[in-house]
Amino acid sequence: NAGVTQTPKFRVLKTGQSMTLLCAQDMNHEYMYWYRQDPGMGLRLIHYSVGEGTTAKGEVPDGYNVSRLKKQNFLLGLESAAPSQTSVYFCASSYLASKPTLRDEQYFGPGTRLTVT
Amino acid sequence: EDQVTQSPEALRLQEGESSSLNCSYTVSGLRGLFWYRQDPGKGPEFLFTLYSAGEEKEKERLKATLTKKESFLHITAPKPEDSATYLCAAYYGQNFVFGPGTRLSVLP
């Protein structure tokens, strides 16, 4: 099992350019998440999905769009990149089951380091 | 406001010097409190989930505990390979809120 994979690993964009980050998981997880991690601020949730075809906004959704056309994939899009979007982006997935079957820990990918100049 | 804080921001220990990391949370309806380890340049790696005040979980040199307002990650006789950033996260509703992390360095 590869777990959670992310592509690309690194990317440099110019202000105004667009790009899509791809996340794939092979654990048959229902839930998938996109976070950004900035120094001193911890991980902040951008968008998440509770199943194929569904998406929802997290804490910092502005400037990003997502799609979950297949259960195993979760795409994060930047339509017009801004320097404030320079960050490390992490994708995660989980089962999220209710008690007492407690299996809702998140599994993270290796991250994508994005620089917007 | 719902938030998760961690202290200290950074901690340097000598090998074998035990200590504790703190995670304080103010959220409504906590469903779970998670601990993760993150090595430089990598994604967070799951360590523990705690669901009820009074619950404790152990893994090798690590033990996590939970009260109604905070969680502690106790590190007993740490080794240099325990050096990493330790993150906690509160799960409530459909939300995961992460703390900023504690950067732990264990010196040989």
Question: How would you sum up this structure in a few lines?
Answer:
With 117 residues, chain A is mainly beta. Chain A is 0% helix and 49% strand.
How would you describe the overall organization of this protein?
Helix content of chain A is 0%, strand content 49%. In chain A, the strands form two sheets. In chain A, strands 2, 4, 5, 6, 9, 10 and 11 form a seven-stranded mixed beta sheet that branches. Chain A has 117 residues and is mostly beta strands. The mean pLDDT of chain A is 91. In chain A, a hairpin with a 5-residue loop joins β7 and β8. In chain B, strands 2, 4, 5, 9, 10 and 11 form a six-stranded mixed beta sheet that branches. A five-stranded antiparallel beta sheet of chain B has the order 1-3-8-7-6, with no helix packed on it. The mean pLDDT of chain B is 94. Chain B has no helices and eleven strands. With 108 residues, chain B is an all-beta fold. Chain B is 0% helix and 62% strand. The termini of chain B are far apart. The radius of gyration of chain B is 13 Å and the shape is globular. The interface between A and B is medium-sized, with 26 and 23 residues.
Offer a few descriptive terms.
heterodimer; A: 117 residues; mainly beta; seven-stranded mixed β-sheet; four-stranded antiparallel β-sheet; 11 strands; globular; B: 108 residues; six-stranded mixed β-sheet; five-stranded antiparallel β-sheet; 0% helix
Distance between the termini of chain B: 41 Å
Rg estimate of chain B, integer Å: 13 Å
Helix content estimate of chain A: under 10%
Pair of chains with the largest interface and how many residues each contributes = A-B, 26 and 23 residues
One letter per element, helices H and strands E, the order of chain B comes to EEEEEEEEEEE
SSE map:
The complex is a heterodimer of chains A (117) and B (108).
Chain A: E1 4-7, E2 10-13, E3 19-25, E4 31-38, E5 42-49, E6 56-57, E7 65-67, E8 73-78, E9 87-94, E10 107-108, E11 112-116
Parallel strand pairs in A: 2-11
Antiparallel strand pairs in A: 1-3, 3-8, 4-5, 4-9, 5-6, 7-8, 9-10, 9-11
Chain B: E1 3-7, E2 10-14, E3 19-26, E4 30-38, E5 45-50, E6 56-59, E7 62-66, E8 70-75, E9 84-92, E10 95-98, E11 102-107
